[in-house]
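Task card 7
Instruction: Convert sequence to structure tokens.
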Amino acid sequence: MGFFSNTTKKIAFWNYSRTSWQWDVLCVLILVFIFLTPKSWFENSEFRHARTVVISGEVFGNQADRGVIEQRAKDLAHRPDGVVTNVRPLRDGTGKVVGYEVDIR
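Output:
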């Protein structure tokens, strides 16, 4: 049991000298992990298919209905069954609404 625990401690605390074969093996294992790990392991599934669409305010005029904005955003994103999670108005320097940012998941 002493050999196993000593080896584990050396690996965990990186106690090998730079000129040893153990150092080389650990470096190769790290590189293999970096380059061969699938990207899907690091993606957040909640935001995997999220998308933000920007719609010009001129399309809707002064009276903008949230349902119309959501439908237009779904059409632009080519996701008719998408779920709109947020609608944010975009304003210019005077406070006039010039567009909308719509988050679709």
